Amino acid sequence: MSEDITKYKQTSIGLIPSNWEVSKFDSVFEFFPTNSFSRDSMTDRRTFNEIQNIHYGDIHSKFKSEIIDCNSEHLPYIKDEMLSNQSFNFIQEGDLIIADTSEDYEGVGECIEVKNVGSKKIVAGLHTFLVRDYSNRTVQGFRTYIFNNPKVNTELKKIATGISVYGISKGNLQKLLIPIPTLPEQEKIAKILSTWDEAIDKCKDVIEQLKERNRGLAQQLLTGKVRVQGFEKKWKLTPLSECLTFTPREILKPTGNYLALGLRSHGKGIFHKTDIDPDNVGMDVLYEVKENDLIINITFAWEQAVAIVSKKDEGGLVSHRFPTYTFKNENAICDFFRHFILQKYFKFLLELISPGGAGRNRVMSKTDFLKLEVKIPDVIEQKAIANILDNAALELNQYQEKLTQLQNQKKGLMQQLLTGKVRVNLND
């Protein structure tokens, strides 16, 4: 790549290379009607009609990258009973599918380009735009990067409307101005960025393999199906009252803003609510948490809203609905339970002591919680198991950090290439 700072021109979207063009989106891409098939309309099993669907949620997950290979990705099928009085615009090679809705402001304008469609019958589903380059001014492999141009992305966010859910109208998208590099430059930019996509995809593959390995390892070690070498002592059925002590740390509500903590369901951990104004809190008494506490949300315990407090959470405040427990280290250690509480069986136990219908009607009994019996090894074996699982988690975290680095590097490179700040060398 080489820089060229002499051949630029001022346009309605800012400074761009002099041999690039600026066009309205609909002067390059033609819109085709899509179908409003939701998740409930689909099945993983092959159907008689064999019509497959790409949903807006698939676009936000982006499969592996911005380009979907229809040969390698499994797409759900439309149920036969959903097809009455339906007409279809089947996706063609190189089509662009854009999500018109996003729950995340940063996800506005996310899209995918399709390849290897072949003879497959695939439709664009709920909350999507299906567009096709009828002008032959873009090359396959480059089209999805149009929305990654930082200038275009900024304009997309300006035309998005909504509060908790953000949407883009067809009319506004049609008028969106986009820069169009020369075809040879598009090909070269796509080729350069595809090498980063390959590295990112490989890293994602490794991450998924490690996640699967770690799930299996945890399930085997935490149930005793597989024992750590050198340990043969029988596991004991132990009430949680012998593992934990209820340890509330009552404090008066602060007079100034403070850090409050919440718990995500499904074992997804603690989140922070910073700068909480005490005037907006009706309770006079709150409770402080400390590192290595076990904390649980009694309202959503049945959804596995439970976690071990980390150092960064220490000092946060919670209400009476978030009881905290400390470990009796002669019988149980937090490093072992950090993994143990995420198992399906532990969720099952929490469901048993959370009677009622659903939501706030299912409040866990704190008394019954300490009566729960869990089958666990002695502390020495707990430490050995925790060490194995911690090392496995560390390896996964290293690859997740590597993925973040690759994605950030690609993002920086895209900003340079897609704005023309750095020009590609067409002679390489």
UniProtKB/TrEMBL annotation:
The keyword ATP-binding does not apply. The keyword Hydrolase applies. Residues 193-220, 389-416 form a coiled coil. Pfam families: Methylase_S. Residues 17-211, 297-398 form the Type I restriction modification DNA specificity domain. Keywords: Coiled coil, DNA-binding, Endonuclease, Hydrolase, Nuclease, Restriction system. One of its GO terms (molecular function) is endonuclease activity. It comes from the Bacteria. Belongs to the type-I restriction system S methylase family. This is Restriction endonuclease subunit S. The lineage of its organism: Bacteria, Pseudomonadati, Bacteroidota, Cytophagia, Cytophagales.
